[in-house]
Amino acid sequence: MLYYLLKNPASYAKLQSEIDDFDREGKFSNPISYAEANKMPYLQAVMKEAMRMHPAVGISMPRYVPSGGAEIDGRWYPAGTVVGVNAWVIHRNKEVFGEDADAFRPERWLESESKAKEMARNMYQVSSQQPILNSYYIAADKILSPSSELAVMSALGRIFLCWR
Q: What is the CATH classification number for the domain harbouring 138?
C-alpha cells in the first residue's frame, strides 16, 4: 500500500487529507481503532486497490468444483476437480475493474456501490473459507477474514501515527 501511495502523490495527498480531517474532527483514538478506520472511505478504497494491484496470493490457490460439476468458460469440469486461477490475472480484468485496470486508482471503489460489490466479489485474496468453487472466477467471496483485517488496521494505525 505504501509503495502505491508513494508512486501516486495525488492518492497520497487525498488520503493524508482524509486522515487530517478525521483527526481534526476528533474521530481518532490513539492508536486508531479498527472501527474508526472502517469509517474512512478513502483509506478503505486505498487498501482494496493496493490489494488488487499487488495481491498477497502469488500462486493459484486450489478450489474444488462442487457436487454436480460446473462449466467454466465453456469447459465442463466434474465434481471434485481441482481448479485455480492467478490473482494477478483476475485483478487486471478490464470487464470487472475498468479499462484502466492496470492503474492504481482507489476512486474506482467509491464511484458506484454496485460496481464496488462486483469488484469485491472478484477479488482473490486470503480467506478463512474452505476452498470451494463459488463464482465464475473461482474466487473467495471475502477479501480478508475479520481477524486479518484487524491486524492490517492495527499496523496501519501505527504507521499513520509515525507519519505525523
A: 1.10.630.10
